[in-house]
């Protein structure tokens, strides 16, 4: 049995219940060391893009490692926040360098939809440890929270190399985390709610980084006009 299929069943079969993927590969099988014989024989129902069908998990991670982006994502975990899984899943989608869990080591993996297999995740016992790691790596901590004195994310020039730091659902960034941030960014809101959850906030912030550093769109700049034809 392949490692991927076995782990999926061990965690409740999150991927197996999805009606996605492909069936057994027609024989003769391709001669490619990246491919998993068990997946070739039984089909690949994992939640991965078509490029990685039938690939071994280690091969997928190795390929992702050749092109990961230079931003990191960190989230505080003091209350076993259910949003953490969603943050990990989104970090995988936007190809973050790493996700950093700050606080409790155990976190709610359900929302990750097994993407933590392909995403590097690092643990720090507290904000001081995260701050020390980031300083040693030369990465500024950029907090994202709607706090007094925060700067709009929409106008802030996100650094190419940084750690985007998010707090818990409800209390937001802890005082210890806030004190170690180079900047605190807020996300513009226009309705009645006072905040959005960390999963949504992280997706918005990561996409802002991608717009700036992948598509070259500066903060506040209008998107390029569509070209006919």
TrEMBL record:
**Record-linked SUPFAM superfamilies:** alpha/beta knot
Q: What Pfam families does the entry give?
A: SpoU_methylase
Q: Which GO-annotated molecular functions does the record name? A: methyltransferase activity
Gene Ontology biological-process annotations: methylation
Location of the region described as Disordered in the Swiss-Prot/TrEMBL record: 1-36
The protein depicted here goes by the name: rRNA methyltransferase
Q: Which residues form the tRNA/rRNA methyltransferase SpoU type domain?
A: 71-207
Q: Where are the transmembrane segments?
A: none
Show the InterPro entries listed in the entry: Alpha/beta_knot_MTases, rRNA_Methyltransferase, SpoU_MeTrfase, tRNA_m1G_MTases_N
Skewed-composition ranges (Basic and acidic residues) = 1-14
């Amino acid at each position: 049995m392949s490692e991927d299929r076995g782990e999926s069943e061990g965690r409740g079969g999150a991927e197996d219940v999805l009606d996605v993927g492909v069936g057994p590969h027609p024989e003769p099988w391709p001669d490619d060391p990246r491919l998993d014989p068990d997946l070739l024989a039984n089909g690949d129902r994992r939640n991965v893009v078509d490029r990685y069908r039938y690939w071994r998990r280690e091969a997928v991670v190795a390929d992702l490692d050749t092109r990961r982006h230079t931003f990191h994502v960190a989230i505080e975990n003091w209350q076993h926040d259910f949003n953490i899984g969603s943050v990990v899943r989104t970090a995988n989608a936007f190809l973050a360098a790493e996700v950093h869990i700050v606080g409790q080591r155990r976190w709610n993996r359900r929302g990750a939809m097994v993407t933590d297999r392909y995403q590097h995740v690092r643990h720090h016992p507290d904000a001081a440890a995260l701050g020390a790691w980031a300083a040693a790596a030369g990465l500024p901590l950029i907090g994202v929270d709607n706090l007094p004195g925060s700067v709009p994310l929409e106008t802030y020039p996100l650094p190419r190399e940084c750690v985007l730091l998010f707090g818990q659902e409800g209390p937001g960034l802890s005082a210890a985390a806030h004190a170690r941030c180079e900047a605190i960014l807020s996300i513009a809101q226009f309705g009645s709610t006072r905040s959005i959850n960390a999963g949504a906030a992280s997706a918005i912030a990561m996409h802002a980084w991608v717009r700036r550093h992948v598509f070259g769109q500066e903060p506040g700049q209008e998107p390029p006009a569509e070209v006919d034809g």
